[in-house]
Structure prediction request, 227 residues.
Amino acid sequence: MSVKIAPSILAGDLGNLSNEVEQAEKGGADVIHLDVMDGHFAPNITFGPGTVKALRNYSKLPFDAHLMISDPLRYLDQFIDAGCDIISVHAEVCTSNTFTEVMKKLNKSGKKVGIALNPDTNIPDWLMQNLNTLDLLNVMSVQPGFSGQKFMPEVLPKMSKINEMLRDKGLDIIIEADGGVDTSNAYELVKAGARLLVAGNSVFGNMDVGKAIKELKEKAFLAIKEV
Ligand code: DX5
Ligand code: ZN
Prediction:
C-alpha cells in the first residue's frame, strides 16, 4: 500500500509548463496532474489536448487528466491521443449514457477511468451501479477553477464514507484528493482513504519542488503506517 503524489502544473509557471513537468519528475513526483478547464463547467480556461500532447515529450510519468469541461465526450479522443494515462470526467456533467460511452472509449484505448466529484456532489445512482468499472475517484476539496484555494475540511467525512463503502464492496478504486492539499491535511486525507494526493500550490509555490514532494510523502507515510 502506498500513497502517490501528483503535482498539478496549473500552479506552476504557465509560461514554462515543460519545465514544471520536468521539475516535478526530478523532484520525485509519481504522476503529473493536468487540470483542463473550458471556461464553462469551471470559471477558468487552462489548456487543451494540444498542450498535453506537447508536454508528453518531457516526462515518462503517468499523465492524469482532470477534465473540468461540460462536454467531455466531445474531446475525449483527443485527450486519449495526447497520451494521457488516467482521464477523469466530472459526475456533474454525466448521465448514465454518457458515462457508459466515456468508459467504453477509455477501456478500448487502455486508459484508466476516473470520475471527479465536486465538494458538494455525492456519488450519483448511475455511478453506484457502475462502480466496478472505475479505476479512480477524484474527491475534490475545492470548487473547480483555480489552484491555491483553501482546503474544505468538510470533504473529509465524505471521503471516509466513500472509502468504507468501497472497502465493504471489495472494490479497488484509487481515491484521489484534489484541492488545497498540503502538509497540514495530507495525514488526515490519507487516513480518510486518499491514495493519490494532488498538490498544486503546496508543491509549485515552494522554492524547492523536491523538498515539498518529500514532505508530503512523509506525512502520507505516517498515516499509512496506521491504517
Ligand atoms: C482545481 C484543480 C486542482 C487544483 C490543485 O480546480 O482541480 O487540481 O488546481 O491546486 P492546489 O493544490 O493549489 O489547490
Ligand atoms: Zn485537479
Residues 8, 33, 35, 66, 178, 198 surround zinc ion (ligand 2) (CB under 6 Å). Strands lie at 4-7, 32-37, 63-68, 86-90, 112-117, 136-140, 174-178, 194-199.
